[in-house]
Amino acid sequence: MADNKEVDQISGTETTGHEWDGIKELNTPLPRWWLWTFYATCLWALAYWIVMPAWPLISSHTTGLIGYSSRAQLAKSVAEAREAQGAFLDRIEAASLEQIVADQELLEFAMAGGGSAFAVNCSQCHGSGAAGFVGYPNLNDDDWIWGGDLEAISHTIHFGIRSDHDETRFNEMPAYGRDELLTPEEINDVAEYVLSLSGSGEDAAAAARGEVTFAEQCSACHMESGEGDYELGAPNLTDAIWLYGGDKAAVVDTIANSRAGMMPAWTGRLDEATIKQLAIYVHSLGGGE
Amino acid sequence: MVEQAVVENTTAGVTAEPGAGVERSDAEPVNKKERRSLYQKRIKIYPKLARGAFRRWKWVIMAVTLSIYYLTPWIRWDRGPNAPDQAVLIDFPSRRFYFFFIEIWPQEVYYLTGLLILAAIGLFLITSLAGRVWCGYTCPQTVWTDLFIAVERLIQGDRAARIRMDKAPWGAEKVVRKVATQVAWIIIAVCTGGAWVFYFADAPTLAGDLLAFQAPPVAYITIGVLTFTTYLLGGFAREQVCTYMCPWPRIQGGLLDEESLVIAYDEDRGEPRGARKKHSHPTDLGDCVACNQCVAVCPMGIDIRDGQQLECITCGLCIDACNSVMDKVGLPRNLISYSTLANVERVRAGEKPKLRLIRLRTVVYSGLIALVGLIMLFTLITRADLDLNILHDRNPLFVTLSDGSIRNGFTVKIINKAHHERTFRLELEGLPGAQLSVVGAGTDPDALTVESDTLASFRVFATVPRETLTDAAVDVEFRVVDRDSGSAITHGSVFRGPQ
Ligand code: SF4
Ligand code: SF4
Fold it and tell me: Which domain holds residue B415?
């Protein structure tokens, strides 16, 4: 640093005293507005340190004068949202499923709430669009195993299927092949017959033989017509929808080894209002009865 | 305006030529380039009142523009029972912009874009024709600064009196006048901020709420911010805004050419300048009598005799000042005048000055304005009061039903921009045999009701037998028909099925 102030002849500006090969650096002052803005931001930063949480300490941090915390902020907004929903949730809790569906306002609330509850709790198995996978029913279609009206859906959600709840929906199909209840030929014939129910069998003679076995072994649950029964949770075998696949190999496999999907009971895990909203949401997907 | 008969013989260094009758001023062009160092405080400017044609114009334009700004929110416009009756209203909560007979929905903000484009090119055109007339007469910064200076002049007197007052020690009169000025400025500033918020809500209601301290906080905050900026920019920053803050003077450089109107001092005629006796015309002097009146009136603190300068907002006040002087000394007017750089050269070369308005850039700007204007007019005339949007379900893309038929889900959004409820019939084209159904008890695709001025959203299922579906994706078209008027609108979509 040069102590003697030197002023550049041409620009009339002071120099910094630095010189390289005769070229001198001008000490051009900062624009006034810039400088003041800079001072203001410094002040702001200082104030921020004091007012807001800023400095990390060994095991915590400074909390600031106004005690702001983003966690508290989140808790507050969640509480506010709860509060805002409270009135609706109370009404939903008090109303029957039919009453909710009849009230446009409640219906919209329930469908939205059910949608988000579905995304959190159900989509892992049924898919985010509720279209299911092999072994996990598609909830958009009009084919139901345990019934598709509001009550039935609500019951299924409450107690699950083959769950550990006492009131769970439960049935068991015998494993005709594994337990050697039928011979492989008989299983083949029954499979042909089942396929023929929805018009896709290939071997009419086998189907005719299978019809007899079906009447003996299967019709108790699946009904003589093959249309199944909601009470027993026996799927309709005459329609175009197959939970485990509708080709011959899949049907043979089902008869030989049985199938038993499992769905947990949600009562106790979700509150009543949420289950109602879920039932209404699932019912609204397009197949509700 | 109160006429101020202050003669500037009180400030130091002012001399009155005996018998000349011309005020002389030692006004300094404080913003003259050589004087302006980078790190310098603002030097206060004391603009003197000019009298003449341009000053009168500026009063008129100030009155008109301020009236437009303050009064527009109070104009009523009847739109029927279901819509606000304020002629100009930006309604954020219900997302509408009302402008007299035009009503703009959020999805039509391109009209606003169009207006902004028109305003920008319009400004380009005006600038290339007549220079910085925007700056000189209509820019809010100019108008409000002018108003603030007028108030200051009314309370503290004209230039000389104001300078005198600033130099004088504080006394009762000085305190009263200074405080009165500040109070008047703040009142104007509050009214400015206050008028702004009326564009965003029903003005009479909001006015009542504001006075009863029941208006939303954002209204008070907006008023507060605008009060502060008006007070600061109109009372103190003034010419600094134009010289340092505003981008417009920089852009102008690219818009002006040598045929654009600028304020020009005729130095061939004026120089060498010098004082003289009335009606005497010494041959060794030009016409400029060196009275400095053009500097004294300049709100930007420059001397136009130094030539074209970035600071000059072409307000024309120096023309007025100079013409008054020329009249008094009996010389021809327009020593300072609106002229073009090309004309200065023409006169030098002995040619007649002329205005060339039709030039490549003015033609291009006019063409662009006409084009954008026509496009906007066309879309405005042909725009419907009905809009339709179709969203195909993304998950699942399709659903197989128990009888084997294929179902697709859609969200159908119908926007009814009419001010009355309407009932529509929904049809699907391009997919023979398709059945439509709408989710919701009692909703019939033949009778979808949409309230006035709303967007209604319906869940719609379309179902076809498997055999009719020839392709994994079939292009379809939804059509919505108003059951009363028969007017219809269509929107394309796609119907999906298994491979
Ligand atoms: S320079 Fe900018 S602020 Fe100043 S009058 Fe022109 S447009 Fe307005
Ligand atoms: S030089 Fe003249 S026209 Fe330009 S700003 Fe000053 S008074 Fe106005």
Answer: 386-496
Residue B493 tokens read as 């979509």
Predicted-assembly ipTM surpassing the 0.90 threshold? no
Task: Judge if B303 and B422 occupy the same domain.
Answer: no
Q: Say which CATH number the domain at B452 has.
A: 2.60.40.10
Cβ-Cβ contacts under 8 Å, A128 against chain B? 395
Q: What's the CA gap between B288 and A260, in Å, rounded?
A: 108
Chain B residues with beta carbon closer than 8 angstroms to that of A12: 37
Interface size between A and B, measured as CB pairs under 8 A: 63
Note the pLDDT tens digit of each residue in B458-487.
Answer: 889 999 998 888 888 999 999 999 998 888
What CATH superfamily classification does A184-257 receive? Cytochrome c-like domain (1.10.760.10)
Q: With contacts defined as CB-CB under 8 Å, which chain A residues touch B439?
A: 284, 286
A149 touches chain B (CB under 8 A): no
According to the model, what pLDDT value does residue B257 have? 85
This prediction's pTM: 0.68
Nearest to B402 among A107, A131, A241 (CB): A241
B225 and B318 in a single domain? The answer is yes
Number of domains in chain B: 2
Best CA proximity match to B413, nearest among B434, B429, B428, B392 = B392
Identify whether the C-beta of residue A145 lies closer than 8 Å to the C-beta of residue A137. Answer: yes
Indicate the fold that domain A72-166+264-285 takes in CATH: Cytochrome Bc1 Complex; Chain D, domain 2 (1.10.760)
- Which H or E run includes B409? strand B406-416
User: Could you give the residue range(s) of every CATH 1.10.760.10 domain in chain A?
Assistant: 72-166+264-285, 184-257
In angstroms, what separates the C-alpha of A90 from chain B's closest C-alpha? 23
- Say yes or no: A227 contacts chain B, CB-CB below 8 A: no
List pLDDT tens digits, range A246-270.
999 999 999 999 999 999 999 999 9
Nearest to A287 by CA among B457, B439, B443, B495: B439
- A152 and A230 Cβ atoms separated by less than 8 Å: yes
Cβ < 6 Å from ligand 1: which residues? B 134-135, 139, 141-142, 241-242, 246, 248-249, 313
Residues β-bridged to residue B45: none
Test A31 with B38 for CB contact under 8 angstroms. Answer: yes
Contact B244 A33 (CB under 8 A): yes
Residue ranges in chain B modelled with pLDDT below 70: 1-21, 34-40, 278-279, 441-442
Nearest CB to A142; choose among B244, B401, B439: B401
